[in-house]
Fold:
Amino acid sequence: MSFGRRGKFFEEFLNPRTANGIGDFLTMGLIPDIPGVYRDDLLEHFGRKSQNPEVQAVILSHAHADHANYISFLHKDIPIYCGQTCKYILDAVDEETQRTIENEVLKYKKRPCFKKNYKDPPIQRTFNTFRTGDKIKIDSIEIEPIHVDHSVPGAYGFIIHTSNGTVVYTGDLRLHGTHSDMTKDFIKNAVQEKPIAMITEGTRIDSGQTGESENKVYDKSKGYLEDNKYLSIVDFNFKDVDRFTTFYNISKDLGKKFVISFKHACFLERYHKDPKIKSPDSRDENILILKLKRLTGTYCDEDYTDEYIKRRLNYSNIITPEELSKNPSDYIIVLNFWYFNQLIDLKPKGGVYIHSLSEPFNEEMEMSYERMINWIQFFNMDFVQSHCSGHINGADLKSLLETIKPKELFPIHTEKPKLFSKLNLKTHIVKEGKPYKI
Structure:
C-alpha cells in the first residue's frame, strides 16, 4: 500500500468506492493488475470474470499497514504466512478497527453486501505462522524467515532458497534499535548464503548516520516529563512495543500511572500472550484505561457499543478525564491527535506533549500537524519532538549491502532508488509491471 500514491487522489473524505469493487484501485494504479490474485467477489463486482489463483502463497514480513492491508484484496484460497507475533498484531487491529474494503485482512464480507446476505458469516483467510528457525516449504521453494529489528515486533527478513541460488529480502529493518542483534543475525545468515539476488528496502537511503536510538528517546522524554508538574501527554504508534516500553518504564521510574485507551488494550493483551515480548497486561498495576465520553456523555455502559470496549468495561483500572484532571501530575497519558477534543475534559493548565512519531512529510500531514500545534498552544502546553525511526539509515544500509554482496540488487520501498546505483553492485531500478529473471 503506497500512502503517497493513494494520497495523490484520495484523502479522508474522498476514498476509493466500495460500490465499484476493486475497480477504483485498479484504475488509479493503487494495486497492480496481476491475473489470478484477487477476490472473486471484487472482480465480479467490477464487471470482470473471476479467476483461479495463480499464486501459491503470500509471505508477510510484518504488520504495518503498508505491508499488510492490501491482503484484503487477495483471493481466499491464497494462504498467508507471517510471524506469530505479527498475527497477534493483526488480531488486535481486527478487534479494534471498523471493517472497510481496505482493512479486511483476516476475514472479509462478500461484496456487494445486500440485506439478504448482510448477516452471513465473514470468509476467513488461511494464516500460517512461524518463528525464526522455522522453514517454509512451498512447492520447490524453501523460505527461511529470520527476525529483524523494526518499529513493530514480529518483523522478518527472508532467505529464499531456489534451485538456481538464494534470494534475500530484507523486509523493513534497522541497526540503531533496541534489538539490533536480530538484524545482525539476518545479515550473518544472508552473507553465508552468497545470494544471487537481493530485494532491499530503502526508505532512508539518502540519510547518513543520525545518532538516534531508543535510549535517547527515553532520556530526552524522561527529562521533560520529570520536570513537568502539570498534564503529561505522549503520542506514539502503539504497534511499536519498544516505544511503549520506553514510556511505560518512564512512568514507573517517575511514580506516575500510565494511561492508555481501550484500543491500546487490544494490542497490549496480545503482546502479553507472547513470552518473547515480556509486555505487561492491560490490567497491570501501573496502567489505567481512559474511558472517554460517548453518546449521552454520562459514562453509562450503554453508551459503549463497540465490542472491544464492552468486553472490558468491567476492568477495575478504568478512569475518566474528569478524574485525571483532579491530579494531572500523577499520570502520563497516551493520546492520539484524533482524540485531542478530550483535552477539553482533561482541562490542562500547561504541561507537556511529547510527539514520538515521524514529522509530517506531505501536505495532508502538515495540515493535521498545524491543527495539533493549535490545540497544544491553546492549552499552553510545551511541544517536544522525541522519536527514533523504524527504518535503517542510509549509511548503515550501504554497509549492510556491501557486507552481503548480492550478485544483483533490487531496491524497493524507496522514493530514491537511483541512489543505489552509486554502490558497487549490479543494481536494477525496478519498473512496475516488468518481470525480472535471475
The first strand starts at residue 58 and ends at 59. The longest helix spans residues 363-378. Residues 214-385 form a domain with the Rossmann fold fold (CATH 3.40.50.10710).
